[in-house]
Amino acid sequence: MPEPAPTPPPNAAPETAARQRWMAVLARTGLAALEARLAGAPPLPPHTRLRGPETGLVMLRGRAGGDGGPFNLSEMTVTRCAVRLADGTVGHAYVAGRDKAQAELAALLDAALQDPAQRPALMAAVIEPLAEAQAGAAAAESRKAAATRVQFFTMATMR
Amino acid sequence: MMQPGFTDPVLDGQSVFRAVLEATSRPGRVQEISAGLTPPAPLHPATAAVLLTLADTETPVFSDAGAAAAEWLRFHAGCPLVAAPATAAFLLATGAPPALEEIDLGSDEAPQEGATLVLQVASLAEGGALRLSGPGIEHEHGLHVEGLPQGFLAARAALAPLYPRGLDIILCAGTRVAALPRTTIVTALPRTTTVMEG
């Protein structure tokens, strides 16, 4: 299900904000879509697994209303992975669900995207089309929701 | 450059824990650790494996092993690293350890809350000049330790009257592990003479 794109913290460095953006896009992309995109992209460098891929639980915290106290909503399944390239660059990925191949591929892409030489080609071939598709899906979802919105204009005019 | 941790965190952690358990329950018996770790210098595979197994987010670690080892530990074990030996639950010493009286030795009510010292030495072998006796040892075990810091055994012996407070020590060298729990009595045999003097 598409989610709205998160806004990075305002004080983040541009490098960090860019990385947050591609990591968010990768985290929302399933393995099949990722592999389909990679078919037309330059080959990825070889990598070593540093940690995982491993599956665990993350506690989701909610807040009742704007000023309510935080509470534990539920736990969700998350798979994480960290890989290292030959030059020492480390890539991380946290994805929802139990797909270890997806987590490893996302971590590898994160590592490769940190290399300025590979970034433009990978951004154009993988991240930008995926981001566009996700934004399109999110917009379609919110249009569908907006169509069912009830406008209480009659009550407003009666007052 | 960051090095990988355990290939299989569950099984490797369990087998290393078993080795440490054997080592502490039979002080002076040397255990082999076969988890194929390639930790950053100056850590030996055994030292790294013991810390990955025992340390986690709830155990502050004091380390004298430098930035690369500290970063590796923080990433793989997720343990907080502290600058003061007194606040640490595990102390990693690759050279001379901090003064033993500065280490948390637990309290008389909860002696199990004291810290554990993981001491990396040059080599370990059974049947050496150190004579060990106490709980877990039927008669006497011999242990050969190379690279023990100067005056370390005397400082350790000085803690004995504080029992049940005390310091448990895990010795690591290469892929080998041995332990000196707080109850073990260590006497160093003189190297050349065969006659013990009273």
From TrEMBL, chain B:
Keywords in alphabetical order: Lyase
Signal peptide annotation: none
SUPFAM superfamilies per UniProt: PhnH-like
InterPro entries: PhnH-like_sp, Phosphonate_metab_PhnH
GO MF terms, alphabetically ordered: lyase activity
Record bears the keyword Cell inner membrane: no
Pfam family, one: PhnH
GO terms classed as biological process: organic phosphonate metabolic process
Designated name of the protein: Phosphonate C-P lyase system protein PhnH
Organismal lineage: Bacteria, Pseudomonadati, Pseudomonadota, Alphaproteobacteria, Acetobacterales
